[in-house]
Amino acid sequence: MLDNLNNVTSPILALILWTFVMWFWMYMTRIPAMRAAGIDPAKVKGKEDLGRLPQKVNWIADNYNHLHEQPTVFYALAIYTHLVGVIDPISVALCWIYVGIRVVHSIVQATSNFVPLRFYIFAAGSLVLMILAGRNLYALMVY
Length: 143
Known about the structure:
mainly alpha
């Protein structure tokens, strides 16, 4: 079982599971907030209809949506890394670091939503993806 933690597929599963954590958090806050605001879910046509919800509730939903944006690059890159065999301790560490960065990003966005801090966290995640992509490009050119 521990050997599974030493490949790039375990961080993929970890980030997918974290996305589900955020999904549960979103609905555990959104549904009660909609009831309190008197919003009928059957009448909601778009995000603008949820404007009466507290900001913190929308921050969680926004983060859930963000977990379907940049992380798609991570999923593709990690799968590519696995398929072409660029699996070494550095690649595995980079994948786990990216997952950790996304978890921190989620917590910051869902609790304080301090945008300057979120930007630096997002930029750090982007840098990790660039390094992982660069390592794969290097392996492609060398081998």
